[in-house]
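Hi there,

I know you've been waiting on this one. I reran it after we fixed the sequence typo, so this is the corrected version. Both the input and the resulting structure follow.
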Amino acid sequence: MEKKIVCQNRKARHDYSIDEIYEAGIVLAGSEVKSLKEGRASLRDSYARVKKEELFLHNMHITPYSFAHHVNLDPTRTRKLLMHKKEIKRLIGKTEEKGYSLIPLSVYLLRGIIKVEMALAKGKRKYDKRHALKEREMKRELDELKKRDRS
């Protein structure tokens, strides 16, 4: 069961503290699937919302497939996500809580099927981001010191 990552939202882990991760299917047109398999997509500034017990992905950019001349789809159109009804109802309760958002982390191919990895996340404040960077830098320095001691 090998995942081939098509695109990632690297900034999401920096800007949000992630609580839970979900997997969802996505409804796409044929030319969008071909474009995704070529890796021509971006998750920058994208997010998910629940509307009438259905889940939708907004602002995901999929570059139009160059050989599809008959269909001109909007690259940033809203796309429906597929999840179990029980999971969606749970997400409705969580996203109504203060500060929680649904953020796509990555889009990947799993056995020929395109999936979206979604995260239930809370936005970080500026000082939280600085604190996380400082911790990462300290850990890196400790690792370097350990390597030097071994040598």
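Quick highlight: The domain at 3-123 is CATH 2.40.280.10 (Small Protein B; Chain: A;).

Best,
R. S.
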